[in-house]
Amino acid sequence: MTDKIRIAVVDDHPMLREGVMYTLRAHTDFEIVAEGASAEDAVRIAEEELPDVMLLDVSLPGGGVEAARAIANTAPVVKIAMLTVAQDEETVSMALGAGARGYILKGISGPDLAQAVRNIHSGEDYVTPGLAARLLVEMGSKGSSRVATEADVFARLNPREEGILALVADGMSNREVGDRLGLSEKTIKHYMTNILQKLRVRNRVEAALLAQKFRSPAAER
Fold first, then answer.
1. Cβ-Cβ contacts under 8 Å for 39 (sequence gap 6 or more)
2. Could you give the C-alpha distances from 131 to 86, 139, 175, in angstroms and in order?
3. Residues β-bridged to residue 103
4. What pLDDT was estimated at residue 204?
5. CB contact at 8 A, 82 and 100
6. So where are the chain's domains?
7. What's the rounded Cα separation, in Å, for the pair 83 and 21?
């Protein structure tokens, strides 16, 4: 029998917190092990329960990003996913930089939330696709010099790496990419490690955003 994914949900809005837990409890591979309402709760739960995945509101009393940073330092085994309504690039970057492995908007559907949790648990990073598209627009307004620099870095990828990254940018997991290309999940992970190093980005989310950016019409002009 496969071990269940142990989840903690920390949000200061009781109705939303209960709704998230209700949604996740409907899946037999999940187990809710703790809930909380503040950054202090989040850090305590991480240290005492060591959940596999913690869903953490950005706007918690005490600061969700601060809590994520503290947990990344004291309990790095806990994979953090921010569950929030905040959609600006700065907040996303701060959360990912603090150690969050996912950034999920609260309007996400139940099945998509469950799959995002599974992907994050398996070691992948996740940003709600609709949010990723909006971030591309904001990133595109930063100026041509940044685009030129990123283009030079992107050119370092070989054709195989470009193909893998394109599938990742379309939202595929490592396993799905492997199935599409006839390669093992382990091989895809190895390629992704090389891709992250070549692109000088911290995680697959940033790499996917960069890939989508250079596939967009604005980047082709």
1. 60, 61, 62, 63, 64, 66, 67, 70
2. 10, 12, 23
3. 82, 127
4. 79
5. yes
6. 5-127, 143-220
7. 12
CA geometry: angle at 180 spanning 176 and 185, to 5°? Answer: 50
Residue 221 is predicted with a pLDDT of 38
What DSSP state is assigned to residue 203?
S
Spell out the long-range contacts of 194-199 with Cβ–Cβ below 8 A and sequence spacing 24 or more.
194/161, 195/157, 195/161, 195/164, 195/165, 198/153, 198/156, 198/157, 198/161, 199/153, 199/154, 199/156, 199/157
Contact 221, 212 (CB under 8 A): no
Confidence (pLDDT) at 218: 40
Strand 126-127 vs strand 102-105: parallel, antiparallel, or unpaired? Answer: parallel
More confident residue, 140 or 170: 170
- Secondary-structure class of domain 143-220 per CATH: mainly alpha
Output the CATH code of domain 5-127: 3.40.50.2300
How do residues 207-221 score in pLDDT, each as one tens digit? 887 777 665 444 443
Q: Are 153 and 129 in contact (CB under 8 A)?
A: no
Is pLDDT larger for residue 205 or for residue 161? Answer: 161
Q: Are 57 and 35 in contact (CB under 8 A)?
A: no
| Residues 116, 81 contacting (CB under 8 angstroms) | yes
Q: How many CB atoms lie within 10 A of CB 32?
A: 17
What's the pLDDT score for residue 78? 93
Residues 6+ apart with CB under 8 A from 59: 12, 84, 85, 86
